[in-house]
Amino acid sequence: MTSPGCWMKNLVNPNPGLPCLEMEEVSFAYEPSHAVLQAISLAIPCGALLAITGLNGSGKTTFARHFNGLLRPNRGTVRLFGEDIRSRSISQLAGWVGYVFQNPDHQIFSSSTRQEIAFGMRNLGWQEDAVQQRTDDVLEEFCLKPYAEVQPATLSFGLRRKISIASVYATSPRVLILDEPTAGLDRRSTLELMAILEAYNRQGNTILFITHDLRLVAERFPQCLVLHEGRILFYGETREFFRNGDLLREAQLGVPQITRLAQGLTSYGVRPDILSVAEFCEVYGSLLGKGKRRAGGEGG
Amino acid sequence: MRIAETFYIHRPSWLHRADPRVKVFFVLAVWGILFVYNTLPASLTAVVVLHGLLFSAGIPLRKVGGIWKAMLPINLSILIVWLLFQPVGDVVWQFGWVRVTVQGLLQGAALALRIDALAFLLFTWLFTTDANALVRGFVRLGMPYPWGLVLTLVLHYIPSFQSQFYAILEAQQARGLRVEGKGFRRVRALMPVLVALVIQVLRTADQLAWTLEARCFGIKGVQRTFLHETRFRWADYGYLAVILGVTVLLFYLRLR
User: How far is A161 from chain B (nearest CA, A)?
Assistant: First the structure.
């Protein structure tokens, strides 16, 4: 595969010790009177699979847009692989940080799905044979082969969403940011997308996934970042977030039903940080087993 | 980048409170005056008066500057074209066959200022009249309601499509699109943005037609009512009298 034609050419294997994305005291406001991000500092390690969540207007999109230069901080520094990106243009950063927009129609313009997917790679100066190869692979991976020669603008919203994700994914960015990519996707498509992203993450790439779907966060993301009124309310293990009742109340987010059920059953010995039905079944099964054994023991 | 979704700027000013029909008459009257007085001093006076109106209505300096910024390329092109096509007169500066003359400069400036005056006239109207009031005004003047609605939609969607243009530009840049060069090269580089915008515009128009129809728009034999009735106040009669008086006087002075 051809490396992206941009300024970080020499950075083929970034130092694994360095954080992949960093923010230092970053503040941002669209209007001077209303700060959207307030002195945010954090470091995201390479290879993270991170869900970003929070209420509407909490600053999720604004936060993520700083990493590919779509927004520049009013104060503070944003670093990519340790380098300050202040003087880098959006198209320079595009080879390293892929950004999938909320609205797929903001990027779809080509006369065929194949062309749409190849667009980003061509912009980044990939060789034509590499573009063709990668396009075929991505069409296959996203189950878009039947639509390869169809005009993407005429397809359904779900398919347009998939194409918009596929076209950014195709450029093989080291960091992939997705802004509510599952809005408008059914459960099956969502899980298919997650499988692709998890495989991509296992190759060492970093994924930032903005979502309101807390069930998805609980089930599929080991780490999450919760924003609230332009500040970081929580950044760490997803399980730890769901365990903390005070944080959950402050974040005002809908907790997955299975976690709520577990929290309602803590007095019966169920852990409050259960994140999926499978996990609940396991815990509940073992409790029943204990109960049976105890009942059997008492009877004997 | 964030852009307002409408031209209207809410302020508690006399110009905002004026009846929308008075403002329609005002626009027509000033347009007519600029048509018969096509001189540099007349255009300059109109621009100054319109600035006075904008500031008295509490329109921020930033917005007024925005109009000048938008008009700058048009002004420059008019000046350049006039300089090239008006080679006769007192030469100020000459380079090869290009001659800059006093007459060329003055005529270019007169035309540019006239276009500026028309732009400021339009924005004085749009900045101070919200879309619903605008339609109410037109409907009270006898325009069929559907036409009035189409007009509002057009006015509403111009800034909205402008903000979509920037959103699409960002989305394509995030896929590595470089928008470089000037003139035709720049337009070619912008094709992925423009095509996506046209698709978006068509989609919006189609959906809008459906959503209007789904809410029974256009049913025959229905008497439409308005929440806010447009009524002339004493002040409105006063404004109308001033506009009529000034217009008739200026037309008389010019055409007698």
Answer: 14
